[in-house]
Amino acid sequence: MPNTKFIIHAYDDVEPIDVGATFGVLSMAKRVDPGIEMALVANKAGPVRLSNGLEIIAPYSVTNCPAGDVLMILGGAAWPQVSKDEETLEFIRSFARNGIVASVCTGALILAGAGLLEGKSATTRRFAPAGIETPLAQMQKLYPGVKGTEARFVDSGTVVTGGGVTLAVDTTLHLIGRLRGADVAKETARIIEYRWSGNDGAFSDAANTPKTAAA
């Protein structure tokens, strides 16, 4: 089986847990399956400030991003700005022509801004503090052509959207299982000591979703 490369896109004010959940799961999965690769990209290579002030370094920009199989768009408080940033949106659209595009948390609203969710079922974070509109409700209001769905994650084939916060772990495990085999995902969940329920609570468009890779 050829290697599978995950490209993770970050931006200023991205949520730390979205970075940690995706990269952390992939890093542990690589110990199970060395064929898993990952790279961090931002609009400009260099420091990216997370919402808690921590800085990480993106070695690649959207103009010199290496080829990949999956592009993962993370969530964060800056999603309203990022979802209107044409450089980011064109990068996402370009990747989507040949690869799988996935989101975790409010990253789904960025995919919606790129037009990738039109006519599709999709999910995002379903809960918010009292008195604050949930991201799922905001997505349904801003993008009425998107079928907002309450689910841990939604797999529409070329586009996968994940729920909020810790569900980034579930979404990443799902992608690993789909592309590298169920056994790799299960073993990764075991070594990170995560009680993973597989596809329970997920939504899948069976007509558009490819079969999972052989274990």
What does this protein look like?
The chain has 215 residues and is an alpha/beta fold. It has one domain: Rossmann fold, CATH 3.40.50.880. Helix content is 33%, strand content 20%. α1 packs parallel to α6 and α6 runs antiparallel to α7. The longest helix is centred in the N-terminal third of the chain and has 17 residues. InterPro entries: Class_I_gatase-like, DJ-1/PfpI, INH-QAR.
Can you count the helices? Answer: 7
CATH architecture annotation name: 3-Layer(aba) Sandwich
CATH topology: Rossmann fold
Q: What is the multimeric organization of the chains shown?
A: single chain
At the fourth level of CATH, the homologous superfamily is Class I glutamine amidotransferase (GATase) domain
Structural class designation:
alpha/beta
Count of discrete domains? 1
Span of the ends, CA to CA? 11 Å
Beta-sheet strand percentage? 15-25%
Task: From the alpha carbons, calculate the radius of gyration and give it in angstroms.
Answer: 16 Å
One letter per element, helices H and strands E, the order comes to: EHEEEEEHHEHEHEEEHHE
Strand order of the largest sheet: 5-2-1-6-7-11-10-12
List how many beta strands DSSP finds.
12
What is the highest CATH level, the class?
Alpha Beta
Average predicted local confidence, pLDDT: 92
Secondary structure: elements and pairs:
Elements: E1 4-9, H1 16-32, E2 36-42, E3 46-49, E4 55-58, E5 60-61, E6 70-73, H2 79-82, H3 86-96, E7 100-103, H4 107-113, E8 121-122, H5 135-142, E9 147-148, E10 153-155, E11 159-162, H6 167-180, H7 182-191, E12 203-204
Helix pairs in contact: 1-6, 1-7, 6-7
